[in-house]
Every structure is written in structure tokens, then in C-alpha cells.
Write a structure and sequence with these properties.
3-stranded antiparallel β-sheet, 3 strands, about 55% helix
Length: about 160
Amino acid sequence: MFNRDPQKAEARAAQRAERRASREAQRDAQREAREALREWRADHPAETQLKQAAFMHPWATSECGITTFGPIAGGRAEFFNADAHKGWTATRLVAGVATLGVSAAATGRKNKGAAAVNVTFGNGNVQSWNVKPDRTELAAANRYVTAFNALAAQLAAEQK
């Protein structure tokens, strides 16, 4: 009833074996790349700190000292904080008093001041990101800049 062509069956089996071998080679290559990155990060702990600081932010993260904007080696980062904080404005205070606190609780405090992270990469590319004037955001920006500068200094020392 079902006449199978043995040559076609062998060809399909060979194709499956070839695809399986290709997938295994890709998995091995990915495993080796992850292990190499793990070893590199063990020697460069500032990159792990940089990645943790940029976790929930649009800031550049690196892999083996290279970001999408350029290399970290030879770069520097600055944290510009012009009294960024959250504060009550007169309008929001008056609205809160007039509505017995209901409006104030709903609207909250207003962002005041300015904060930014300015990064110059090793290839001369400059990138700037605004930072929300929130205590956790400001702390993360400070950690990011510290880790970036530490990693840039370590990579520059290794190149010499």
C-alpha cells in the first residue's frame, strides 16, 4: 500500500542528521561564547555592575567592553545632577488643601531640577540620557557612571 522510495528516505534522514549536527554546533558555539563572556566578566567586575545599573534604563550596556555606540576603552561618563528632586508645587498644595488631601494624593509631587548621564565612548561617539529626578533613578545613574569609568580605566590599563 505505502511504497517508500529508499533513496528518498535516506536523503531525508541525511538532511535530518545534517540539521541536527548544525543545531548542535550552534549550541556548542553559543555555550563557548557564554563561557568566554562569563570568564571575561569575572576579570572585569565593573561590567557586571554597569549591566545591573542599566537594567531598567535605556543606557548602553556592554559585552566584553563593546557597546552598540562604541568601545568603552578610552571613554568616560559624567553624571550631571542640577538639584534634581521631587517636590510639591504651590498649585498642588492648594489643590490638596481645597480637596482635603484627595487631589494631592492623586497628583503627587512634581519633578524638579534636571539630571543627565553624558557618555563619551572610545570612538568619540557621545550619547546623553535624561534621568528622572527620583531617588532610585539618581542612585542608578551614579552607579552607572562609576562602573563605566572604572571599566574604561581598567581597559585602558590593560591596553598599555
